[in-house]
User: What shape does this take?
Amino acid sequence: MGDPAGVGAEITAKALGKPDIYERCNPIVIGDAQIMARACGLVGRDDLSIHAVHDVAEAFFQYGTIDVLDMGVIGVCDYEIGQVSAKAGDAAFQYVKKAIGLAMKGDIDATVTNPLNKEAINLANHHFSGHTEIYAEFTGTSRYTMMLAHKNLRVVHVSTHVSLREACDRVKKARVLEVIKIADQACRDMGIDKPKIGVAGLNPHCGEGGLFGWEEIEEIIPAIEEASKEGISVFGPVPPDSIFSKARGGWYDVVVAMYHDQGHIPLKLEGFVYSKEKRMWEAVEGVNITLGLPIIRTSVDHGTAFDQAGTGLANELSLVNAIDYANSFAQRRSGGCFVINKK
Assistant: This one.
């Protein structure tokens, strides 16, 4: 459900208010029932009923009824909508931890996360920099990376939630090679038989032969060469100011970005559309996927949007995209129909 003070519950109500979602999968919300009930009212969907359960096996999986695995962590009077708080941060953390546990046990086939607030979870003494790191910790995963995807544009990252100075220091041959391999496998898992991987440089003009930096020569190129020897179709390093246009045009199936904003900015420029005339977001699309985990995790590609929380105006498209990606991954793993409840 995400941070209760953010837009997670509202966009969940909107997404699960679409009949076709139930034709593709069996969704269950992990959160608090009273928060979801209020969210339905906020988005004008009082026609949807909330079915609180304490076990996945109790869920109805029927359109018109939102099944909520009721954690009983927080109530509507325990926090302010749109405000950072330790209570809301703790609730968001507990929801995620429960989802991971259910997936690890095989009770559900995939997990889809709504946004949490990093400051809030840390105020609650859960010292993680985001969902990706929480999933890594509770699945015992040491080698993982984040993928962002919007239509045919996909990006994976060598580093994410660290300072820009530290991100430069993390551009090492072993890590770049590791991310190339993870990206190659992820594309194959998505049904791309012979993925083409473009690797971005770190420095302007890929360092211009060492004039603007040595990372390409000393770390990135050796990683590309080794990946190529292993049979991976990999290209680069490609200047960061042109690689994403090439990827959007079909040159590459996925781009390896060297740090957080290098990959996030082009994806959000593509997926986020704001109308100046209407003064609203017409589209907020894109999916965040954690690769390398033993379980499936996809997510919206935006934050808690505290400025929109409680208005009922938040856009649910990114969540719908995330559900569809999770569905696709689950189908390929099972080799058949996607069924989130394995009872």
User: Anything to note?
Assistant: The chain has a mean pLDDT of 93. Residues 1-137+295-343 form a domain with the Isopropylmalate Dehydrogenase fold (CATH 3.40.718.10).
